[in-house]
Amino acid sequence: MTSDEYLKALRAGQKEYDACVSKGAYPYLSYLDDMLSHVDIECRTKLGLVEIPIDQIVGTYNKNRSNAFARNFMPLFERGSEFAVKWEALYDSMEEEGLRDPIIAYEFLNQFYVQEGNKRVSVSKYMGAVSIEGQVTRIVPKRTDTKESQLYYEFLSFYEKTAVNYLSFTKAGSYALLLNATCDDPEAVWTDDQRLDLKSVYTNFRREFLAKGGGKLSLTPSDALLIYLNIFGYEKAKNNLSADWKSDLTKIWKEFLVYARERSIAISLNPIEDPKKHTLAKLMSGKTYAAAWVYEKNKETSAWTYSHELGREYVEDALGHQLQTDAYYDVTLANAEESIEGIIQDGYNILFLTSPQYIAVAAKLAVEHPEVKILNCCLNMSYQHVRSYYLRMYEAKFLIGAIAGSLTPNDRIGYVTDYPIYGSAASINAFALGAGMVNPNAEVYLKWTTLKDPGEDIFAANDIRLISDRDLNAAAKPSREYGLYLKGEPPKNLAMPVWHWGKMYEEILRSILNGNWKDEENSVGLHALNYWWGISADAIDVIYSEKLSENTKRLIRLLKNSIKSGAFYPFSDLIYFQDGSCIDAGTQMDPMDIIRMNKLVRNVHGFIPAIEDVREEFQPLVKMQGLFRPETSTHL
Fold first, then answer.
1. Which end of the chain is more exposed for a tag (fewer CB within 10 A), N or C?
2. How many CB atoms lie within 10 A of CB 475?
3. In this model, does residue 184 exceed pLDDT 90?
4. Burial of 311 (0-12, 13-18, 19+ CB in 10 A)
5. Which of 291, 284, 275, 278 is nearest to 517 (CA)?
6. What does the alpha-carbon distance between residue 213 and residue 529 come to, in Å, rounded to a whole number?
7. Interval 73-87: pLDDT, tens
8. How many CB atoms lie within 10 A of CB 335?
9. CA 440, 445, 449 angle in degrees (round to 5)?
10. Which pTM was predicted?
11. Backbone dihedral angles phi then psi of residue 336, each to the nearest 5 degrees
């Protein structure tokens, strides 16, 4: 009987009401007109007839009808009341004919408030509807600096291209990442087929995610779907059956748990000194290891590959009697998954993937092969199954900046850099702070090598003769223009940073060989472990010309030893930026704030490029590791 259905709905409303009261929360529907009285409005836009996700209808437009419903839109008026009779009649009508007339609603911050049709929403929610049609007016608040505002304006840009309104993320940058994961051209307007594909994927994923208990986690189904797509890819998701979803979610559930944490990344700043050495247990287990280094390019043409190969060769000398090592060159992104899968099948159970762009492949293969230890060379990645590693190059840049500040012939120094990604602003700023510490008049002029339009030569225009350039040259590209040099014929090399990857690789491998790998995982719990080592771990150094003055060499030794011992940190005290802002970093700036630093100190002339300013071949890396993606972490 219809009256029985109303009674069930009434009980659901009363239960929600009591739960809200016990928590001290407002028990009725929220109403939009009260909220708008405290908000500056940018504009109102009629969207026309919209399919409204039922879960995103959260209130009514004005207070008049708000107390007829509990916060979950279930009724509160007693059975037999005029309201109950109308609700029951509507239930009968919708059960026989469905919803005949769309509701009228307002959208505000991607949530919906009903002006006409509250009972239609109530009955639809009770009947388990997923969506409801409505004539919608969007109310856009003025942009502010809040996270809520940032996410909403990102949603507006996403909606303009896709007309998709059912996704809700908790972290900035997620809408752009979803576009990258689901279409070839993130700037193109979506077709009906694209919308249908995403809706099908999201609906199927959400059902399995919630059935597995995802609703209890501090992330949305949209957040979880993005994690899934980053690991398994969109094509697989479109072809999944229910059993596939269940199996895949079981494999990556820990990734959701990590993402849901307020601080998802644990940063290891130094090798963990663990008195427990399990070498005997390892020997008794009979476990053998083979480590492979995987490169996008080769050591003849790429200085990056060459520097890592020096590290692998260092490990081969130090640990070659305990494990096999090998290198795989020219593994492009297009064939990375197939190639690395082949490496695993060949028996390699430790993989060092040396490009940040391998991270998606690394995450997928780590899930599929939990017996293999996979590490990816990048910063600030929150995959629990993959450990990332990088070096604190900003420490070396600070020391070289101090050398440059003492040697500049005209208070002007050039600085050449490449990608606007995590850590790049920290290196630039550390260099400028080092220069400014020894020479308050030192000015640093910035040149990006990856720009579409580099513009005029800023070095020539400002008579810059002292330049900090690339850290190392490839074997096939010999040149004296590396490190810190004074222009001339030939250039006069003065100092250069040393990336001692071998030291990091040796320590990581020793932790595996000694049986301490699992101990490290246990020590950080549900966090993604990122190694980020520097001078204190002997993984970073600076070499300089013997022709420097004794006072300069003495100063650099003093600064280096102070950084190594923890007595001094390059980012500390008051730091002033180009935009006039200032922060007090205290004794030591939080490591994650250093990694994601996205503005330049005041004695730097230049800017941080946007993605669209970078040449197309470099944009995928910037999209993945760019400075626009804030994250949170803890450090060890």
1. N
2. 14
3. no
4. buried
5. 278
6. 25
7. 999 999 889 999 999
8. 11
9. 150
10. 0.85
11. -60, -50
